[in-house]
Protein backbone atom coordinates (compact mmCIF):
# COMPACT_ATOMS: atom_id res chain seq x y z
CA UNK A 1 0.00 0.00 0.00
CA UNK A 2 2.72 2.37 0.97
CA UNK A 3 4.59 1.45 -2.22
CA UNK A 4 1.48 2.17 -4.33
CA UNK A 5 0.93 5.64 -2.91
CA UNK A 6 4.65 6.29 -3.30
CA UNK A 7 4.41 5.39 -6.96
CA UNK A 8 1.24 7.47 -7.38
CA UNK A 9 3.06 10.36 -5.77
CA UNK A 10 6.07 10.08 -8.08
CA UNK A 11 3.72 9.79 -11.01
CA UNK A 12 2.03 13.02 -9.97
CA UNK A 13 5.43 14.64 -9.52
CA UNK A 14 6.35 13.55 -13.02
CA UNK A 15 3.26 15.14 -14.51
CA UNK A 16 3.84 18.30 -12.52
CA UNK A 17 7.35 18.46 -13.95
CA UNK A 18 6.09 17.90 -17.49
CA UNK A 19 3.46 20.60 -16.97
CA UNK A 20 6.04 22.96 -15.55
CA UNK A 21 8.34 22.39 -18.52
CA UNK A 22 5.50 23.09 -20.93
CA UNK A 23 4.62 26.30 -19.08
CA UNK A 24 8.30 27.27 -19.19
CA UNK A 25 8.36 26.85 -22.96
CA UNK A 26 5.01 28.60 -23.37
CA UNK A 27 6.32 31.55 -21.36
CA UNK A 28 9.09 31.96 -23.92
CA UNK A 29 6.65 32.21 -26.85
CA UNK A 30 6.23 36.01 -26.63
CA UNK A 31 10.01 36.46 -26.81
CA UNK A 32 10.34 33.90 -29.61
CA UNK A 33 7.62 35.71 -31.53
CA UNK A 34 9.38 39.07 -31.11
CA UNK A 35 12.65 37.59 -32.35
CA UNK A 36 10.94 35.90 -35.28
CA UNK A 37 9.16 39.13 -36.25
CA UNK A 38 12.40 41.04 -35.85
CA UNK A 39 14.21 38.70 -38.22
CA UNK A 40 11.38 38.86 -40.77
CA UNK A 41 10.87 42.60 -40.79
CA UNK A 42 7.57 42.15 -39.00
CA UNK A 43 7.86 44.60 -36.13
CA UNK A 44 6.25 47.41 -38.12
CA UNK A 45 7.36 50.96 -38.73
CA UNK A 46 8.43 51.57 -35.14
CA UNK A 47 10.11 48.36 -33.93
CA UNK A 48 11.43 49.88 -30.70
CA UNK A 49 7.94 50.93 -29.64
CA UNK A 50 6.62 47.48 -30.54
CA UNK A 51 9.30 45.72 -28.46
CA UNK A 52 8.73 48.08 -25.53
CA UNK A 53 4.95 47.57 -25.62
CA UNK A 54 5.18 43.79 -25.99
CA UNK A 55 7.68 43.23 -23.17
CA UNK A 56 5.69 45.57 -20.90
CA UNK A 57 2.47 43.75 -21.69
CA UNK A 58 3.97 40.37 -20.81
CA UNK A 59 5.56 41.69 -17.63
CA UNK A 60 2.13 42.73 -16.38
CA UNK A 61 0.56 39.51 -17.58
CA UNK A 62 3.06 37.35 -15.71
CA UNK A 63 2.70 39.52 -12.61
CA UNK A 64 -1.05 38.94 -12.65
CA UNK A 65 -0.66 35.19 -13.28
CA UNK A 66 1.73 34.99 -10.33
CA UNK A 67 -0.86 36.68 -8.14
CA UNK A 68 -3.54 34.12 -9.05
CA UNK A 69 -1.73 31.22 -7.32
CA UNK A 70 -2.89 32.04 -3.81
CA UNK A 71 -6.59 32.62 -4.65
CA UNK A 72 -6.65 29.38 -6.68
CA UNK A 73 -5.36 27.43 -3.70
CA UNK A 74 -7.84 29.04 -1.33
CA UNK A 75 -10.85 28.71 -3.61
CA UNK A 76 -10.22 25.45 -5.47
CA UNK A 77 -7.65 23.76 -3.30
CA UNK A 78 -5.14 23.64 -6.17
CA UNK A 79 -1.56 23.49 -5.01
CA UNK A 80 0.23 23.17 -8.31
CA UNK A 81 0.01 26.89 -9.22
CA UNK A 82 1.95 27.65 -6.04
CA UNK A 83 4.66 25.28 -7.20
CA UNK A 84 4.96 27.08 -10.55
CA UNK A 85 4.68 30.50 -9.01
CA UNK A 86 8.40 31.08 -8.58
CA UNK A 87 9.06 30.28 -12.22
CA UNK A 88 6.23 32.55 -13.39
CA UNK A 89 7.42 35.34 -11.10
CA UNK A 90 10.90 35.01 -12.57
CA UNK A 91 9.37 35.31 -16.03
CA UNK A 92 7.72 38.55 -14.94
CA UNK A 93 11.19 39.72 -13.90
CA UNK A 94 12.66 38.43 -17.16
CA UNK A 95 10.21 40.40 -19.32
CA UNK A 96 10.55 43.44 -17.04
CA UNK A 97 14.32 43.29 -17.58
CA UNK A 98 13.88 43.12 -21.35
CA UNK A 99 11.43 46.03 -21.09
CA UNK A 100 13.90 48.11 -19.09
CA UNK A 101 16.83 47.17 -21.35
CA UNK A 102 14.79 48.15 -24.41
CA UNK A 103 14.25 51.55 -22.85
CA UNK A 104 17.87 51.89 -21.76
CA UNK A 105 19.58 50.66 -24.92
CA UNK A 106 17.20 50.92 -27.86
CA UNK A 107 15.08 53.87 -26.83
CA UNK A 108 17.48 56.14 -24.95
CA UNK A 109 20.81 54.56 -25.96
CA UNK A 110 22.42 55.21 -22.53
CA UNK A 111 21.49 58.89 -22.59
CA UNK A 112 21.81 59.10 -18.80
CA UNK A 113 20.80 62.76 -18.40
CA UNK A 114 17.64 62.08 -20.43
CA UNK A 115 16.93 58.96 -18.35
CA UNK A 116 17.35 60.78 -15.04
CA UNK A 117 15.10 63.55 -16.34
CA UNK A 118 12.51 60.99 -17.42
CA UNK A 119 12.47 59.32 -14.00
CA UNK A 120 12.09 62.65 -12.25
CA UNK A 121 9.65 64.33 -14.64
CA UNK A 122 7.56 61.68 -16.37
CA UNK A 123 5.03 60.30 -13.87
CA UNK A 124 4.66 56.99 -15.69
CA UNK A 125 8.41 56.45 -15.55
CA UNK A 126 8.54 57.75 -11.97
CA UNK A 127 6.31 54.82 -10.96
CA UNK A 128 7.60 52.32 -13.51
CA UNK A 129 11.27 52.57 -12.66
CA UNK A 130 10.93 51.80 -8.91
CA UNK A 131 8.56 48.97 -9.77
CA UNK A 132 11.35 47.41 -11.80
CA UNK A 133 13.94 48.10 -9.09
CA UNK A 134 11.71 46.44 -6.47
CA UNK A 135 11.51 43.31 -8.60
CA UNK A 136 15.28 42.81 -8.31
CA UNK A 137 15.41 41.80 -4.60
CA UNK A 138 12.45 39.49 -5.17
CA UNK A 139 14.25 37.73 -8.01
CA UNK A 140 17.49 37.56 -6.03
CA UNK A 141 15.77 36.00 -2.99
CA UNK A 142 13.76 33.51 -4.99
CA UNK A 143 16.07 30.54 -4.37
CA UNK A 144 15.45 27.94 -1.65
CA UNK A 145 18.73 28.91 -0.03
CA UNK A 146 17.68 32.54 0.26
CA UNK A 147 14.32 31.58 1.72
CA UNK A 148 16.17 29.57 4.40
CA UNK A 149 18.65 32.35 5.03
CA UNK A 150 15.98 35.00 5.43
CA UNK A 151 13.54 32.83 7.30
CA UNK A 152 9.97 32.32 6.17
CA UNK A 153 8.49 35.32 7.93
CA UNK A 154 11.01 37.90 6.70
CA UNK A 155 10.99 36.37 3.23
CA UNK A 156 7.21 36.60 3.12
CA UNK A 157 7.10 40.22 4.19
CA UNK A 158 9.79 41.11 1.64
CA UNK A 159 7.81 39.40 -1.10
CA UNK A 160 4.75 41.40 -0.07
CA UNK A 161 6.40 44.03 -2.29
CA UNK A 162 4.76 42.27 -5.21
CA UNK A 163 1.47 44.04 -4.38
CA UNK A 164 3.10 47.46 -4.65
CA UNK A 165 4.87 46.36 -7.83
CA UNK A 166 1.61 45.16 -9.38
CA UNK A 167 -0.14 48.45 -8.60
CA UNK A 168 2.82 50.53 -9.82
CA UNK A 169 3.03 48.47 -13.00
CA UNK A 170 -0.63 48.98 -13.89
CA UNK A 171 -0.46 52.70 -13.03
CA UNK A 172 2.67 52.96 -15.22
CA UNK A 173 0.70 51.55 -18.17
CA UNK A 174 -2.39 53.65 -17.43
CA UNK A 175 -0.40 56.89 -17.32
CA UNK A 176 1.53 56.34 -20.50
CA UNK A 177 -1.34 55.69 -22.91
CA UNK A 178 -2.42 58.72 -24.83
CA UNK A 179 -6.16 58.29 -24.85
CA UNK A 180 -7.49 54.75 -25.24
CA UNK A 181 -7.20 53.31 -21.72
CA UNK A 182 -9.13 50.09 -22.44
CA UNK A 183 -6.09 47.81 -22.02
CA UNK A 184 -4.84 49.35 -18.76
CA UNK A 185 -8.42 49.25 -17.45
CA UNK A 186 -8.52 45.50 -18.07
CA UNK A 187 -5.26 45.01 -16.19
CA UNK A 188 -6.48 47.24 -13.37
CA UNK A 189 -9.75 45.29 -13.09
CA UNK A 190 -7.96 41.96 -12.86
CA UNK A 191 -5.47 43.33 -10.35
CA UNK A 192 -8.32 44.73 -8.24
CA UNK A 193 -9.98 41.33 -8.11
CA UNK A 194 -6.72 39.60 -7.14
CA UNK A 195 -5.81 42.14 -4.47
CA UNK A 196 -9.42 42.50 -3.33
CA UNK A 197 -9.52 38.77 -2.66
CA UNK A 198 -6.57 39.14 -0.30
CA UNK A 199 -8.13 42.07 1.49
CA UNK A 200 -11.36 40.14 2.04
CA UNK A 201 -9.42 37.12 3.27
CA UNK A 202 -7.34 39.20 5.66
CA UNK A 203 -10.50 40.74 7.08
CA UNK A 204 -12.05 37.29 7.52
CA UNK A 205 -9.07 35.86 9.37
CA UNK A 206 -9.00 38.92 11.57
CA UNK A 207 -12.68 38.47 12.40
CA UNK A 208 -12.35 34.74 13.10
CA UNK A 209 -9.35 35.47 15.31
CA UNK A 210 -11.44 38.00 17.20
CA UNK A 211 -14.43 35.70 17.53
CA UNK A 212 -13.34 33.68 20.59
CA UNK A 213 -12.59 36.92 22.40
CA UNK A 214 -16.03 38.22 21.53
CA UNK A 215 -17.77 35.02 22.63
CA UNK A 216 -15.93 35.16 25.93
CA UNK A 217 -17.19 38.69 26.41
CA UNK A 218 -20.67 37.46 25.63
CA UNK A 219 -20.40 34.70 28.22
CA UNK A 220 -19.23 37.02 30.90
CA UNK B 1 14.79 95.60 -90.15
CA UNK B 2 14.69 99.32 -89.54
CA UNK B 3 11.70 99.92 -91.78
CA UNK B 4 9.68 97.10 -90.27
CA UNK B 5 6.59 98.39 -88.57
CA UNK B 6 4.43 96.90 -85.94
CA UNK B 7 1.34 95.74 -87.83
CA UNK B 8 -1.83 97.44 -86.75
CA UNK B 9 -4.40 95.18 -85.25
CA UNK B 10 -7.82 96.10 -86.50
CA UNK B 11 -10.57 96.22 -83.85
CA UNK B 12 -12.50 93.77 -85.98
CA UNK B 13 -9.72 91.22 -85.63
CA UNK B 14 -9.77 91.22 -81.84
CA UNK B 15 -11.73 88.33 -80.39
CA UNK B 16 -14.48 89.68 -78.21
CA UNK B 17 -14.00 89.01 -74.50
CA UNK B 18 -17.16 86.92 -74.19
CA UNK B 19 -16.09 84.72 -77.06
CA UNK B 20 -12.64 83.89 -75.77
CA UNK B 21 -13.97 83.37 -72.31
CA UNK B 22 -16.52 81.01 -73.71
CA UNK B 23 -13.76 79.28 -75.63
CA UNK B 24 -11.75 78.81 -72.44
CA UNK B 25 -14.81 77.52 -70.71
CA UNK B 26 -15.33 75.11 -73.59
CA UNK B 27 -11.72 73.93 -73.37
CA UNK B 28 -12.05 73.47 -69.62
CA UNK B 29 -15.21 71.45 -69.99
CA UNK B 30 -13.68 69.39 -72.79
CA UNK B 31 -10.60 68.72 -70.70
CA UNK B 32 -12.53 67.68 -67.63
CA UNK B 33 -14.88 65.57 -69.76
CA UNK B 34 -11.87 63.80 -71.24
CA UNK B 35 -10.48 63.31 -67.75
CA UNK B 36 -13.81 62.03 -66.48
CA UNK B 37 -14.04 59.62 -69.40
CA UNK B 38 -10.59 58.33 -68.61
CA UNK B 39 -11.43 57.84 -64.95
CA UNK B 40 -15.05 56.82 -64.59
CA UNK B 41 -16.37 57.21 -61.09
CA UNK B 42 -13.48 59.19 -59.69
CA UNK B 43 -10.15 58.21 -58.29
CA UNK B 44 -9.55 55.60 -55.65
CA UNK B 45 -6.72 54.77 -53.29
CA UNK B 46 -3.60 53.62 -55.05
CA UNK B 47 -4.43 55.16 -58.44
CA UNK B 48 -1.79 57.45 -59.89
CA UNK B 49 -2.66 61.11 -59.92
CA UNK B 50 -2.18 62.53 -63.41
CA UNK B 51 -0.36 65.75 -64.39
CA UNK B 52 1.37 66.50 -61.12
CA UNK B 53 3.26 69.77 -60.97
CA UNK B 54 6.69 69.55 -59.34
CA UNK B 55 6.96 72.10 -56.58
CA UNK B 56 9.85 73.86 -54.90
CA UNK B 57 9.01 72.11 -51.64
CA UNK B 58 11.77 69.52 -51.55
CA UNK B 59 13.82 68.28 -48.61
CA UNK B 60 17.27 66.75 -48.35
CA UNK B 61 15.81 64.22 -45.88
CA UNK B 62 15.33 60.63 -46.94
CA UNK B 63 11.70 59.78 -47.67
CA UNK B 64 9.93 57.44 -45.24
CA UNK B 65 9.14 54.19 -47.10
CA UNK B 66 5.58 54.15 -48.41
CA UNK B 67 4.89 50.92 -46.51
CA UNK B 68 5.56 52.69 -43.21
CA UNK B 69 3.59 55.78 -44.22
CA UNK B 70 0.55 53.63 -44.99
CA UNK B 71 0.78 51.07 -42.20
CA UNK B 72 1.68 53.15 -39.14
CA UNK B 73 -1.16 55.60 -38.67
CA UNK B 74 -3.05 57.48 -36.03
CA UNK B 75 -6.63 57.60 -37.27
CA UNK B 76 -8.82 56.83 -34.25
CA UNK B 77 -11.96 56.50 -36.39
CA UNK B 78 -10.50 53.14 -37.41
CA UNK B 79 -9.04 52.12 -34.03
CA UNK B 80 -6.44 53.42 -31.64
CA UNK B 81 -3.60 51.06 -32.57
CA UNK B 82 -1.14 52.18 -35.21
CA UNK B 83 -1.93 49.10 -37.29
CA UNK B 84 -5.73 49.36 -37.01
CA UNK B 85 -6.33 52.08 -39.66
CA UNK B 86 -4.58 50.07 -42.39
CA UNK B 87 -6.58 47.00 -41.37
CA UNK B 88 -9.98 48.66 -40.97
CA UNK B 89 -10.10 51.62 -43.34
CA UNK B 90 -11.17 49.48 -46.30
CA UNK B 91 -14.77 50.09 -45.22
CA UNK B 92 -14.47 53.83 -45.95
CA UNK B 93 -16.33 54.83 -49.11
CA UNK B 94 -14.60 57.78 -50.73
CA UNK B 95 -17.10 58.21 -53.60
CA UNK B 96 -19.47 59.94 -53.71
CA UNK B 97 -17.94 62.48 -51.34
CA UNK B 98 -18.66 66.11 -50.72
CA UNK B 99 -16.98 68.84 -48.74
CA UNK B 100 -19.24 71.59 -47.40
CA UNK B 101 -17.47 74.95 -47.36
CA UNK B 102 -19.71 77.12 -45.21
CA UNK B 103 -20.05 79.59 -42.39
CA UNK B 104 -18.79 83.16 -42.53
CA UNK B 105 -18.18 83.23 -46.30
CA UNK B 106 -19.72 85.02 -49.28
CA UNK B 107 -19.57 81.89 -51.46
CA UNK B 108 -20.62 78.86 -49.46
CA UNK B 109 -20.51 75.76 -51.60
CA UNK B 110 -20.83 72.01 -51.29
CA UNK B 111 -17.93 70.73 -53.35
CA UNK B 112 -17.96 67.41 -55.05
CA UNK B 113 -14.60 65.80 -54.38
CA UNK B 114 -13.79 65.33 -58.07
CA UNK B 115 -14.36 68.98 -58.92
CA UNK B 116 -12.48 70.07 -55.80
CA UNK B 117 -9.47 68.06 -56.94
CA UNK B 118 -9.48 69.95 -60.23
CA UNK B 119 -9.71 73.41 -58.71
CA UNK B 120 -6.04 74.11 -59.36
CA UNK B 121 -3.25 71.85 -60.64
CA UNK B 122 -2.08 69.36 -58.04
CA UNK B 123 1.52 69.62 -56.94
CA UNK B 124 3.86 67.32 -55.06
CA UNK B 125 5.43 68.59 -51.83
CA UNK B 126 7.85 66.79 -49.56
CA UNK B 127 7.07 67.68 -45.93
CA UNK B 128 8.32 66.53 -42.55
CA UNK B 129 5.58 65.15 -40.30
CA UNK B 130 6.11 65.29 -36.54
CA UNK B 131 3.67 63.40 -34.34
CA UNK B 132 2.93 64.61 -30.81
CA UNK B 133 4.08 61.12 -29.72
CA UNK B 134 7.68 62.04 -30.64
CA UNK B 135 8.09 60.13 -33.89
CA UNK B 136 8.40 61.63 -37.35
CA UNK B 137 8.26 60.85 -41.06
CA UNK B 138 9.11 62.51 -44.38
CA UNK B 139 6.25 62.24 -46.87
CA UNK B 140 5.72 63.39 -50.48
CA UNK B 141 2.16 64.71 -50.38
CA UNK B 142 0.03 65.74 -53.34
CA UNK B 143 -2.37 68.65 -53.14
CA UNK B 144 -2.72 72.39 -53.50
CA UNK B 145 -2.57 75.29 -51.05
CA UNK B 146 -5.64 75.51 -48.83
CA UNK B 147 -5.54 79.26 -49.53
CA UNK B 148 -6.74 78.59 -53.10
CA UNK B 149 -10.00 77.17 -51.78
CA UNK B 150 -10.36 79.84 -49.09
CA UNK B 151 -9.93 82.65 -51.64
CA UNK B 152 -12.78 81.25 -53.72
CA UNK B 153 -15.01 80.97 -50.65
CA UNK B 154 -14.39 84.68 -49.90
CA UNK B 155 -14.50 84.74 -46.11
CA UNK B 156 -16.24 87.78 -44.65
CA UNK B 157 -15.06 89.98 -41.81
CA UNK B 158 -16.40 87.63 -39.14
CA UNK B 159 -14.27 84.72 -40.29
CA UNK B 160 -11.50 84.53 -37.69
CA UNK B 161 -10.97 80.76 -37.64
CA UNK B 162 -11.42 77.76 -39.90
CA UNK B 163 -12.81 74.51 -38.55
CA UNK B 164 -12.27 71.15 -40.25
CA UNK B 165 -14.79 68.40 -39.61
CA UNK B 166 -14.06 64.73 -40.32
CA UNK B 167 -16.67 62.21 -41.44
CA UNK B 168 -18.48 60.58 -38.52
CA UNK B 169 -20.14 57.41 -39.78
CA UNK B 170 -20.21 54.34 -37.51
CA UNK B 171 -21.12 52.21 -40.51
CA UNK B 172 -17.85 53.02 -42.24
CA UNK B 173 -15.70 53.85 -39.23
CA UNK B 174 -15.67 51.19 -36.51
CA UNK B 175 -13.65 53.42 -34.18
CA UNK B 176 -16.34 56.06 -33.69
CA UNK B 177 -18.38 53.54 -31.70
CA UNK B 178 -15.78 53.89 -28.96
CA UNK B 179 -15.55 56.95 -26.78
CA UNK B 180 -11.83 57.43 -27.40
CA UNK B 181 -12.58 60.96 -28.64
CA UNK B 182 -15.64 63.15 -29.02
CA UNK B 183 -16.85 62.60 -32.59
CA UNK B 184 -16.86 63.98 -35.19
CA UNK B 185 -13.17 64.77 -35.13
CA UNK B 186 -12.70 68.53 -35.28
CA UNK B 187 -9.61 70.56 -35.92
CA UNK B 188 -9.05 74.22 -36.57
CA UNK B 189 -6.73 77.02 -37.55
CA UNK B 190 -6.55 80.76 -37.21
CA UNK B 191 -7.29 82.43 -40.57
CA UNK B 192 -3.71 83.58 -41.14
CA UNK B 193 -2.47 80.03 -40.46
CA UNK B 194 -5.00 78.59 -42.88
CA UNK B 195 -3.95 81.08 -45.57
CA UNK B 196 -0.26 80.26 -45.12
CA UNK B 197 1.24 78.80 -48.32
CA UNK B 198 2.53 75.75 -46.40
CA UNK B 199 -1.01 74.66 -45.45
CA UNK B 200 -1.78 71.97 -48.01
CA UNK B 201 -5.18 70.62 -48.98
CA UNK B 202 -4.08 67.08 -49.70
CA UNK B 203 -5.45 64.39 -52.01
CA UNK B 204 -2.53 62.04 -52.45
CA UNK B 205 0.86 60.76 -51.36
CA UNK B 206 3.72 59.21 -53.25
CA UNK B 207 2.05 60.36 -56.50
CA UNK B 208 -1.07 58.31 -55.83
CA UNK B 209 -4.55 58.89 -54.46
CA UNK B 210 -4.52 58.91 -50.64
CA UNK B 211 -4.95 55.47 -49.11
CA UNK B 212 -8.04 55.46 -46.89
CA UNK B 213 -5.98 55.08 -43.71
CA UNK B 214 -4.09 58.27 -44.55
CA UNK B 215 -7.25 60.39 -44.65
CA UNK B 216 -8.82 59.81 -48.07
CA UNK B 217 -10.24 61.41 -50.05
CA UNK B 218 -9.14 64.79 -48.73
CA UNK B 219 -7.19 65.91 -45.70
CA UNK B 220 -5.16 68.82 -44.53
CA UNK B 221 -1.39 68.79 -43.98
CA UNK B 222 0.28 71.36 -41.72
CA UNK B 223 3.96 70.47 -41.51
CA UNK B 224 4.88 72.92 -38.73
CA UNK B 225 2.27 71.51 -36.35
CA UNK B 226 1.89 68.18 -34.57
CA UNK B 227 0.19 65.60 -36.73
CA UNK B 228 -3.15 65.65 -34.94
CA UNK B 229 -3.84 69.14 -36.34
CA UNK B 230 -3.93 67.69 -39.85
CA UNK B 231 -7.56 66.56 -40.02
CA UNK B 232 -8.36 63.58 -42.25
CA UNK B 233 -11.32 62.53 -44.43
CA UNK B 234 -12.79 66.03 -44.29
CA UNK B 235 -16.49 66.62 -44.98
CA UNK B 236 -16.77 70.18 -43.69
CA UNK B 237 -14.70 73.34 -43.74
CA UNK B 238 -16.39 76.00 -41.64
CA UNK B 239 -15.42 79.62 -41.23
CA UNK B 240 -16.23 80.81 -37.74
CA UNK B 241 -15.71 83.77 -35.45
CA UNK B 242 -14.81 81.90 -32.25
CA UNK B 243 -11.83 79.60 -31.77
CA UNK B 244 -13.22 76.10 -32.37
CA UNK B 245 -13.08 73.58 -29.53
CA UNK B 246 -11.00 70.92 -31.24
CA UNK B 247 -11.17 67.20 -30.43
CA UNK B 248 -7.81 66.84 -28.72
CA UNK B 249 -8.18 70.06 -26.75
CA UNK B 250 -11.52 68.77 -25.53
CA UNK B 251 -9.97 65.40 -24.65
CA UNK B 252 -7.05 66.87 -22.69
CA UNK B 253 -6.73 70.66 -22.51
CA UNK B 254 -3.64 70.38 -20.32
CA UNK B 255 -1.86 68.13 -22.79
CA UNK B 256 -2.98 69.23 -26.25
CA UNK B 257 -3.23 72.81 -27.39
CA UNK B 258 -5.13 74.56 -30.15
CA UNK B 259 -1.93 75.79 -31.79
CA UNK B 260 0.10 72.58 -31.38
CA UNK B 261 3.13 74.07 -33.10
CA UNK B 262 6.06 71.66 -32.98
CA UNK B 263 8.19 72.99 -30.15
CA UNK B 264 11.12 71.13 -28.55
CA UNK B 265 11.09 73.63 -25.66
CA UNK B 266 7.56 72.81 -24.53
CA UNK B 267 7.19 69.23 -23.31
CA UNK B 268 4.01 67.25 -23.33
CA UNK B 269 3.21 66.94 -19.60
CA UNK B 270 3.95 63.22 -19.75
CA UNK B 271 6.84 63.03 -22.19
CA UNK B 272 9.63 65.14 -23.65
CA UNK B 273 9.30 66.84 -27.03
CA UNK B 274 13.01 67.67 -27.26
CA UNK B 275 13.80 64.71 -29.49
CA UNK B 276 12.02 62.52 -31.98
CA UNK B 277 12.56 59.17 -33.60
CA UNK B 278 12.41 59.40 -37.37
CA UNK B 279 10.67 56.22 -38.48
CA UNK B 280 13.40 53.93 -39.82
CA UNK B 281 16.18 55.50 -37.73
CA UNK B 282 17.76 53.95 -34.66
CA UNK B 283 19.01 57.09 -32.97
CA UNK B 284 16.69 59.88 -31.97
CA UNK B 285 17.24 63.31 -33.47
CA UNK B 286 16.70 66.79 -32.08
CA UNK B 287 13.27 68.20 -32.78
CA UNK B 288 13.39 71.57 -34.55
CA UNK B 289 11.23 74.57 -33.63
CA UNK B 290 8.16 74.59 -35.90
CA UNK B 291 9.46 71.26 -37.21
CA UNK B 292 12.14 73.08 -39.22
CA UNK B 293 9.71 75.55 -40.82
CA UNK B 294 10.44 78.44 -38.43
CA UNK B 295 11.71 80.65 -41.25
CA UNK B 296 8.36 80.41 -43.01
CA UNK B 297 5.90 80.44 -40.10
CA UNK B 298 7.50 81.92 -36.97
CA UNK B 299 6.23 85.40 -37.85
CA UNK B 300 2.65 84.15 -37.45
CA UNK B 301 3.30 83.92 -33.73
CA UNK B 302 5.42 86.95 -32.91
CA UNK B 303 4.63 88.32 -29.48
CA UNK B 304 2.83 85.16 -28.41
CA UNK B 305 3.95 83.23 -25.34
CA UNK B 306 4.47 79.80 -26.87
CA UNK B 307 4.70 78.18 -23.42
CA UNK B 308 1.16 79.35 -22.77
CA UNK B 309 -0.27 78.95 -26.27
CA UNK B 310 1.16 75.51 -26.91
Outline the fold blueprint.
The complex is a heterodimer of chains A (220) and B (310).
Chain A (H helix, E strand, L loop, with lengths): L1 H26 L1 H11 L7 H30 L3 H28 L4 H10 L1 H18 L3 H7 L1 H8 L1 H16 L5 H38 L1
Helix pairs in contact in A: 1-4, 2-3, 3-4, 3-9, 3-10, 4-6, 5-6, 6-9, 7-8, 9-10
Chain B lengths: L16 H22 L14 E2 L11 H6 L12 H5 L9 E6 L5 E4 H5 L5 E8 L4 E11 H8 L7 E6 L19 E5 H4 L5 E6 L2 E2 L9 E3 L12 E7 L6 H5 L23 E4 L6 E2 L7 H4 L13
Parallel strand pairs in B: 1-4, 2-11, 5-12
Antiparallel strand pairs in B: 2-3, 4-5, 5-8, 6-7, 6-11, 8-9, 8-10, 12-13
3D structure, described in words:
The complex is a heterodimer of chains A (220) and B (310). Chain A has one domain (51-219). Mean pLDDT of chain A is 90; it is low at 214-220. Chain A is 87% helix and 0% strand. By secondary structure, chain A is mainly alpha-helical. Chain A contains ten helices and no strands. Chain B is an alpha+beta fold and 310 residues long. Chain B has one domain: Sulfite Oxidase, Chain A, domain 2. Chain B has helices at residues 17-38, 66-71, 84-88, 113-117, 146-153, 191-194, 247-251, 294-297; strands at residues 53-54, 98-103, 109-112, 123-130, 135-145, 161-166, 186-190, 200-205, 208-209, 219-221, 234-240, 275-278, 285-286. In chain B, the strands form two sheets. In chain B, strands 1, 4, 5, 8, 9, 10, 12 and 13 form an eight-stranded mixed sheet that branches. In chain B, a hairpin with a 6-residue loop joins strand 12 (275-278) and strand 13. The longest helix of chain B has 22 residues, at 17-38. Chain B is globular. The mean pLDDT of chain B is 90. The interface between A and B is medium-sized, with 20 and 27 residues.
Summary, kept brief:
The complex is a heterodimer of chains A (220) and B (310). In chain A, 87% of the residues lie in helices and 0% in strands.
Amino acid sequence: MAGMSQRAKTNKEKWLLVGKSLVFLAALIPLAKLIWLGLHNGLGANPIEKITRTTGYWTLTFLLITLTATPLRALLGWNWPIRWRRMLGLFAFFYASLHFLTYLVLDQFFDWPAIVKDIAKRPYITVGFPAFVMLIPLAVTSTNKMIQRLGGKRWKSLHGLIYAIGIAGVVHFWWLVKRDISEPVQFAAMLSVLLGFRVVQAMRTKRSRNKPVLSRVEIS
Amino acid sequence: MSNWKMPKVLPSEITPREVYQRRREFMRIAASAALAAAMPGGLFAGERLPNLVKSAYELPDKLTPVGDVTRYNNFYEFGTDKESPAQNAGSLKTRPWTVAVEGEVRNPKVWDIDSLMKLVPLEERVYRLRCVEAWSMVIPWVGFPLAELIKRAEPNGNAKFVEFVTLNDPGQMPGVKSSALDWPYREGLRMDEAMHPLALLTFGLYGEVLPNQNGAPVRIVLPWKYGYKSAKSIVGIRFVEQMPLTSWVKAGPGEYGFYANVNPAVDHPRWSQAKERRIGDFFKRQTLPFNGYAEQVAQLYTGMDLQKFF
